[in-house]
Design goal:
heterodimer, A: alpha+beta, Ubiquitin-like (UB roll), DNA polymerase, domain 1, 5 helices, 5 strands, globular, B: alpha+beta, Aldehyde Oxidoreductase, domain 3, Aldehyde Oxidoreductase, domain 4, 3 domains, 7-stranded mixed β-sheet, 30 strands
């Protein structure tokens, strides 16, 4: 049994037939080709699968695709400018070694996008608290905090 | 202009920050099918019924061990005490840990594969499980080892008994460390595709060791090794967990052989990962140490038991943790009289395997605890007793009692710099001020350690296995357009090897960093590499890149000399331009030289073959020790048992830092993992062998809210290898257990005998200390003094 849904993903319209049990993460990856969104725990803990649904951060492993019907979904793959310019957060993560293996990075970036959208002038303590729903196993977080701080300051 | 020593932008980053990484899970191929494993819910049982009928009747492909030809992985070692046991690709007859794969179901997508797995009927007759490695088993895990001991070895040097008998002070401790795991953010994953026309198998795998996997898969499946291609594309963290060939990997490839032309994909979920990927660090140390009155360590007697889980991990064997613990227990401390009996004991738990730092986060905790204990009894500081005993530069090369040779020796310098970085004197002053007040108490902890890196053939990793991991190969190819492609045997799970190898080749060849592209992780592309483990790649893979680039440079200069009618020894190459020394106007660009090499054989000088490529191996023969020290200050809340980290400093001798940003990132990340293991991460089995920390809701990894800001410093003492480098991948993990246990012990005046330092462990220790002083509150909490 499948359900027809429409989503706008990174500005592109998708008309999809999904099963009610399909998670948004799986549909983004398998049906929309958005493999940039990663699945790390499937329990909403690690944050790797974070995307923005109607501008709110969402664990796409905990949301069913049918719940995103008629929604606008933003993934890491929509951050880069059309001319190939990196989003300031993407550039800052590269500059500050805010990633090593890069598996958690898409979720980190989407959480950080939301952080910069919602907090005017975050200090390091705020950044550490706000980013604490995303687990990174490689960096020890210093580079991530540096990157978010830099991107926040230079906007 | 040297690239080494600077931090150019990583070659990996653009694809990774834009969501265009190439992870195994991202791979989609025509006709692809998906695999789910049926796993044992029971720790130890006979399989009485395994009925795939209902699942097959519903249209699923189901594979059991019998369907796959009964493939068994047997990790081999020539150690006399080693009991060789087998690990079936899928369980047959008996299951030995909860989560062990019993059958595999193939379907059109993962959801349906899991539906099919639920239809496979398995009945189990439970056997008494063994969970703790230091309790006698009721029913052995393997019939070949009735006492569950898979190997035991004694390291023996000097006269331990007589020295202990005459020592001024003897300290006895029993210490246990917590089972935890590498737990990379990307779980395991594989895609296998068998082409029956030419019997070629391609296996995309998130592995740290693609060439080893190729070798083992070819042997296990009876394929020609040249017809097996293993591709490790972007890999989302490894930390040792992915340096193992798992039964699921072998089963997946065997299934591909049964389903020719159909790519079969398995992407592990986190529940599977926590249950069935390798664990580590479940150890017990029984220690007796003798000291002289001035704090000199005289003798150490150790009995070390490592819980190696249900299987001898392939190919590293059950010896990986116990032998590392015994070989490096004495760490950076001078010692003559040393006896350590180490054993690996099988239990009905997930197999133990390599995890960043292999055994030493536990053994360093054990050793440092003995020093802290002795210091307290002798009225010395933790700093003084370490300075009294560390190997010093003038002792180098220092033969440790386990006969390993330490070539670093800068431990005191590392410690001193780390003390300065945390502001040690001010911390001690503040600590003294708070003593006897209601304020949270401050504790200061220390760890000195030696990270054994880049092991060559004479000191090769592992317990006398049928292979030696001392060498890697690299090919440097100058293309017809003069740009360079490197085919390196190294692999990367976040360490940035594409970047570092490009730097090495750019400098050795004399071209720009941006003109070098690096291909790694594909056994069809590179000649040979053992992969990522034992902090070996910067030293060994880096050495191979350096040597092959120099060999390519020699060919370039010979060809250029012919074209310029000059002597090769008079030529220089910088930034891709070859010039004649002393005649700056006579130059030729590398693109022109390369064009001649491939396209204009009419211009080839006499005696020079076409093409511009070189392949070289490198083996450092011995290893390189990296000295390190960490110091931290913590605040302990005696009411809740919680710990706040106030300051953290780490100073290491990484030799020459090739890409300082990557080096610091390795150190910071490994310290964070160490802190996780010391404070939060604990894989807990109940007495029946059920894993009670089976999701990330229960298995707690540290976040940005827990990991402190840290100061990372260096003493750069070049090692005796072509690049002067020492490995840095693991050292950071070695300190935090010891540092945090020492700091809590210092803050509360208690002994810490077990890890992790959960609030309940700390609170209980605080209460015990308060009871000893007769200041326990009526509500049961430790009263404030």
């Amino acid at each position: 049994m499948s359900v027809d849904i429409t989503m706008i993903v990174d500005g592109e319209r998708f008309d999809l037939a999904v099963e009610p049990r399909h998670t948004l993460a799986d549909v983004l990856r398998e049906q929309c080709g958005r493999t940039g969104t990663h699945v790390g725990c499937e329990h909403g803990v690690c944050g790797a699968c974070t995307v923005l649904v109607d501008d709110e951060p969402v664990r796409s492993c905990l949301m069913f695709a049918v719940q995103a019907r008629e929604c606008t979904v933003s993934t890491v793959e929509g951050l880069e400018g059309e001319d190939g310019t990196l989003h300031p957060l993407q550039q800052a993560f590269a500059d500050h070694h805010g990633l090593q293996c890069g598996f958690c990075t898409p979720g980190m970036l989407m959480t950080a996008v939301n952080l910069l959208d919602t907090v005017a002038d975050p200090d390091r303590e705020t950044i550490r608290a706000e980013m604490s729903g995303n687990i990174c196993r490689c960096t020890g977080y210093t580079g991530i905090v540096d990157a978010v701080e830099d991107a926040a300051r230079s906007r | 202009m040297s690239s080494l020593g600077t931090s150019p932008p990583r070659k990996e980053d653009r694809r990774l920050v834009t969501g265009r990484g190439r992870f195994v899970g991202d791979l989609q191929l025509p006709r692809m099918r998906h695999v789910a494993f049926v796993r044992s819910p029971i720790a130890h049982a006979r399989i009485t019924t395994l009925d795939a009928g209902p699942a097959r009747d519903a249209g699923y492909r189901v594979f059991t061990q019998a369907d796959l030809g009964g493939i068994v992985l047997r990790a081999q070692s020539a150690l006399p005490s080693y009991v060789e046991t087998g690990q079936p690709a899928l369980a047959e007859g008996k299951v030995r840990f909860q989560g062990e794969p019993v059958a595999a179901v193939v379907a059109t997508d993962r959801y349906r594969a899991e539906d099919g797995a639920e239809l496979v009927e398995v009945d189990y007759a439970p056997l008494p499980p063994t969970v703790c490695a230091w309790l006698p088993p009721e029913s052995p895990v393997h019939d070949e080892a009735p006492d569950n001991v898979l190997l035991e070895r004694t390291f023996d040097a000097g006269d331990v008994d007589a020295t202990l008998a005459s020592a001024f002070l003897t300290v006895r401790r029993e210490l246990t460390t917590n089972r935890h795991a590498g737990n990379p953010m990307e779980c395991r994953a594989g895609v296998a595709l068998f082409d029956p026309a030419d019997r070629r198998l391609t296996f995309w795998s998130g592995t740290q060791v693609p060439h080893l996997v190729r070798n083992m898969i070819a042997e296990l499946l009876g394929l020609s090794e040249g017809n097996v291609r293993v591709v490790a594309p972007d890999v989302g963290g490894g930390f040792g967990v992915k340096a193992v060939l798992y039964p699921e990997d072998v089963a997946l490839c065997a299934i591909a052989l049964e389903m020719p032309g159909t790519p079969v994909k398995w992407v592990e979920d986190r529940v599977e990962h926590l249950a069935a990927a390798t664990h580590a660090r479940d150890h017990r140390y029984l220690l007796t140490a003798g000291f002289s009155e001035d704090g000199t360590l005289l003798a150490l007697d150790a009995d070390v038991t490592c819980n190696v889980g249900a299987y001898s991990v392939y190919p590293w064997t059950a010896g990986i943790e116990p032998l590392m613990a015994g070989g490096l227990l004495t760490g950076p401390y001078k010692l003559t009289h040393y006896r350590a009996t180490v054993r690996g004991v099988a239990t009905n738990t997930a197999p133990s395997g390599p995890y960043r730092g292999v055994a030493r986060p536990a053994s360093v905790f054990a050793m440092e605890t003995m020093l802290d204990d002795a210091a307290a009894r002798l009225g010395m500081t933790g700093v003084d007793i370490r300075r009294r005993n560390v190997i010093r530069p003038e002792d180098i090369p220092y033969k440790m009692p386990s006969r390993l040779v330490d070539d670093s020796g800068h431990y005191d310098e590392c410690l001193t710099k780390a003390l300065d970085a945390v502001g040690y004197d001010d911390l001690v002053e503040e600590q003294q001020r708070r003593r006897g007040t209601d304020e949270p108490q401050i504790g200061i902890g220390f760890a000195c350690y030696n990270e054994l890196t880049g092991l060559g053939r004479a000191a090769s990793a592992g317990p006398r296995m049928p292979f030696r991991t001392g060498h890697d190969a690299c090919t440097v190819r100058i293309n017809p357009d003069g740009r360079v492609t490197v085919f390196s045997g190294v692999t990367s799970q976040g360490q940035g090897l594409e970047t570092t190898v490009a730097q090495i080749v750019a400098d050795a060849l004399g071209v720009g960093y941006d003109d070098v592209d690096v291909r790694i992780g594909d056994t069809d592309a590179s000649l040979w590499g053992f992969g990522a483990f034992s902090s070996r790649q910067a030293v060994i893979g880096g050495g191979a890149a350096h040597r092959s680039a120099l060999a390519a440079r020699t060919k370039v200069l010979r060809l250029a000399a012919g074209l310029l009618e000059a002597d090769p020894s008079d030529l220089l190459i910088e930034n891709g331009v070859i010039a004649v020394a002393g005649s700056p106007d006579v130059t030729i660009g590398l693109p022109e030289v390369a064009r001649v090499a491939y396209l204009e054989s009419n211009r080839l000088p006499e005696g020079i073959e076409p093409g511009l490529e070189a392949t070289e191996f490198y083996d450092p023969i011995r290893g390189a020790f990296a000295a390190g020290a960490q110091v931290a200050a913590v605040e302990v809340d005696r009411t809740t048992g919680s710990i706040s980290i106030l300051r953290w400093a780490c100073v290491e001798d990484a030799g020459r830092a090739m890409h300082p940003q990557i080096v610091d990132g390795q150190i910071a990340g490994s310290i964070a993992q160490g802190i996780g293991g010391a404070l939060y991460e604990h894989l807990v089995y109940d007495d029946d062998g059920n894993l009670s920390t089976g999701t990330l809701l229960d298995y707690l990894m540290p976040t940005s809210a827990e990991i402190p800001e840290m100061t990372i410093g260096h003493v750069e003492r070049p090692a005796a290898n072509p690049l002067g480098v020492r490995g840095v991948g693991e050292g950071g993990t070695l300190g935090p257990n010891a540092v945090l246990a020492g700091a809590v012990s210092d803050a509360l005046g208690v002994k810490i005998d077990e890890l992790p330092l959960s609030p309940s462990v700390v609170w209980t220790a605080a209460r015990r200390a308060a009871e000893d002083r007769g200041v326990v509150d009526e509500d049961g909490g430790p009263d404030r003094e």
